[in-house]
Amino acid sequence: MKYDIIIYKLNYFIKTHEHIIYGLIEKSNVHMSIVHFRGRKKMKKLLVLMLVLGLSLSIGACTKEVEKIVEVEKEVEVESSVETVYVEVPSETISIESGKVEEVSDIPALENRKIIYTSNLVLESTEPDNVYTNLVNKLALYDAYIEQETITEKRFTLKIRVRSENLIDFVNDIKTDGEVISYSKTSQDVTTKYSTFESRKEALEAEHKRILELIEVADSVESIIALEAVRVEVEADLNYIGSQLSNYDSLIDYSTINLTINLVSDEPEQLPKTERPNIIDLEIGTKSITFSVYNESKNAATLYAKIKLNGELVEELEEDTHGSSYVSFTVDNLESDEVYSIEVYGLESDHTESNKYYKDVHTKKTFLIKSTDLFDASINSVVSVVEFLVLGIIVIGPYLLILGVIYLPVRFIYKRFRK
Known about the structure:
The protein has four domains: about 1-80; about 85-265, no CATH class; about 280-360, Sandwich (Immunoglobulin-like); about 370-419. It has helices at about 1-15, 20-25, 40-80, 130-140, 165-175, 190-215, 220-255, 365-419; strands at about 95, 100, 115-125, 145-150, 155-165, 180-190, 255-265, 280-285, 290-295, 300-310, 310-320, 325-330, 340-350, 355-360.
């Protein structure tokens, strides 16, 4: 009775899951026919053993398949960042000496190898806009395109994709447009991983085809539901692996160039300023100026003095001096009664220039100029008095006129009636 119950349950299981069991047995290379259990007790034990053996082999095969899927998925997770992270191959090196790049001959790639190449290039130029424009004009020539770019006032950062067979020529062409600061090239062989994905894809496609065949001949709703669930999982795996293979194909067919173009100024670098000199004594005459300049720096320096009139250089003087000492300058043949601007600064032996000191100086007037000024002042005073009187007359005149017009007629009438 115990065996009858087991046989009954197995018979029911086989009827409801006939197609799935057949697929599992076929996958583990065990070929057997599905037989309905009817009658003979002698076949019961044999069939039980066969089914148990078939299920054991199928479970073993499924376990290996699951382990394989887990292993592939781990590899896929590692490879998911392949577009931004590359492993440099130690055998390939690039050296730079005195701003020039020494190219290392590429080792001919083996046939059917899947290799991803990445180049990193940094240039400097006084006109990065022109470098960028030239680069854009060359894209079509080398079958390349700009995948990403960031442009600021002083830097161009570009991610360029170029046909792999044109990579070296394109990089060499770019180098001619600026000064090479650094260059590196890396390669990553993904042949093994690519083959693993391809094998897995072929296996899943065969499995998918078989599942579709089983769905067509399924004779129960439960079997169809179970097979559909498996089909959905297989198609999801196929889509994922397909996207990974497409990503690999893109990275293999089109290499990546990470290019940076920096703006470099053509102006000479200015050294830090030292302490400025100072004018400590000043004597001003009608035609000359004498002044002393103190070197505030502790180092010896050459002191320069420039005298300007209305922004134009009149005379330039220079004198060597020790640190923390002073030197005197005298400037003659100047114009009297003029405002001159004095500019002094120091220059040390290492060409370090100091901050500059400025001072305006007004030369004295001559006697003639003073007399002229006095005469002008007197004339101005007389003119001022006359102007005051005229203004007074202008102000009082109307009142006097009114008084005359009224007073004279009244007085005439008064005298006439009095007589």
